[in-house]
Write a structure and sequence with these properties.
With 436 residues, the chain is α/β, with parallel strands linked by helices. The chain has 15 helices and 19 strands.
């Protein structure tokens, strides 16, 4: 008899959500985590969007380990000496059911994994899943569990759910991934800067548990990517996301790029006097729908970042909610397949059907080209400068000369950039199509 009904590898949001669904369905499930505790290996440069938890954990906001609720969202276009910010604030996001929140991933991941354990899942930490177990030790044998780095630590089950992160060795071993293209990945690099809580609230103009999320374009020294800054209770996270091939092709290191962004006149006053408490980096699947692997094979499902289900689409930078959504769908499909006694790829097809029917695939399909548009040369190198110059010229007073008029300013700045108006019109059209 197998040790478990299902082995879930990776106790991040996807794995813990799948394990929670399975445990509640009465299935014997093992949640394997390579770190000493869930979340210990994770960093995160963004915001947790928790509404997907509404049905899984009703009123989750009452005990989830949240730092701040995001009530202010800003998008900044930056040049070396300028910054143009669209800054939105709403009181509607300051109360239940909330919209977005900042959280420390070690706290949040441990909390969600704890919910799975409370439901009956077995959590095994400090354990690396080194590979798949196959029936008869044959390369073409049915998957019957995972091999771990513990002595006599093989775990058996008729079904494995791989939630082992962006570089999923289990999914690759199962043949669910094709050729890996480095152009589909970015590297996220983050510093966590400690500041007194009072200083954060004064500098960012927030109170109580309200927080701020900045997304920044034009701060990456010509490397395709973007920057971010968001507030926790007594720390500020600041960092960049950089296209892997472009980063490798030049001499700047990520920490130098962050340092230049921190020194910018729009950022420096916000973090002045802060002490860096953490520096971390991780790989991000950036190409969205175009890099999603096969999601199901005989005896195996793939969810979360392991399935490239991270939405990186310009102003929409979401990962945890997509991980949870895919984990829930994987847990439900696994429960259904086990009940029927069919864990073949066909028997597990309900997983893809569930993803297609909910926000996970619908949003990925809708925003399929958005990442390519945002990472394009003109959006990265030209438009932040053009936009900042236009606004600067609009508000510059050069008496006794009269104001030149907006049309003339735009035409002059576009010409100065070397672009043509038809380029702007074409990019505007492509942008509208790409963002649904």
């Amino acid at each position: 008899m197998p040790d478990f009904d299902v082995i879930v590898v990776g106790a991040g949001p996807a794995g813990s959500s799948a394990a929670l669904v399975l445990a509640r369905a009465g299935r014997k499930v093992c949640l394997v985590e390579r770190g000493p505790f869930p979340g210990s290996k994770n960093m995160y440069g963004g915001v947790v969007y928790g509404r997907i938890l509404d049905t899984l954990i009703p009123e989750w906001w009452k005990d989830a380990p949240i730092q701040r609720w995001v009530t202010r969202r800003a998008t900044m276009l930056m040049t070396g000496t300028q910054a143009l910010t669209v800054d939105f604030r709403t009181d509607a996001w300051a109360g239940p059911p909330y919209n977005g929140a900042t959280a420390y991933r070690p706290d949040f991941d441990s909390w969600l994994a704890g919910r799975a354990v409370d439901a009956g899942a077995t959590l095994v930490c400090d354990t690396v899943a080194k590979g798949l177990l196959r029936e008869g030790d044959r390369p073409d044998g049915a998957i019957v569990g995972v091999r771990t780095d513990r002595p006599d630590g093989d775990l058996t089950a008729p079904l494995v759910i791989a939630c082992d992160g962006v570089n999923s060795f289990l999914a690759k071993e199962a043949g669910l991934y094709g050729e890996v293209d480095p152009a589909n990945y970015t590297v996220g690099v983050k510093e966590t800067v400690a500041l007194p809580r009072e200083a954060i609230e004064q500098r960012f103009n927030v109170r109580d548990r309200d927080g701020v999320d900045f997304e920044i374009l034009g701060c990456t020294q010509g490397i395709p990517g973007g920057g971010f800054l968001y507030t926790n209770l007594d720390t500020v996270a600041v960092g960049v996301v950089l296209k892997v091939p472009s980063l490798a092709a030049q001499s700047l290191r990520p920490e130098e790029i962050i340092a230049r962004m921190k020194a910018h006149s729009a950022i420096a006053p916000l973090i002045e006097g802060g002490e860096v408490k953490e520096y971390s980096a991780h790989l991000i699947p950036e190409a969205g729908y175009d890099m999603i692997p096969e999601l199901a094979g005989d005896g195996m499902l793939v969810a979360g970042d392991a399935a490239a289900l991270c939405l990186a689409a310009g102003i929409w930078l979401e990962g945890v909610n997509f991980a949870i959504g895919s984990g829930i769908a994987a847990g439900e499909a696994a429960t259904e397949a086990l009940t029927r006694g069919d864990v073949s790829a066909a028997g597990l097809s309900g997983y893809r059907a569930r993803l297609d029917a909910n926000f996970v695939m619908k949003d990925h399909k809708k925003l399929r080209r958005a990442a390519h548009v945002i990472m394009g040369e003109r959006n990265q190198l030209h438009y932040p400068q053009i936009a900042c110059n236009i606004v600067e010229d609009m508000f510059r007073v050069e008496n006794p000369d009269p104001k030149p008029g907006l049309r003339r300013i735009v035409q002059r700045e576009v010409k100065r950039s070397g672009l043509r108006m038809r380029d702007l019109m074409r990019d505007a059209r492509d942008g509208m199509r790409s963002f649904g």
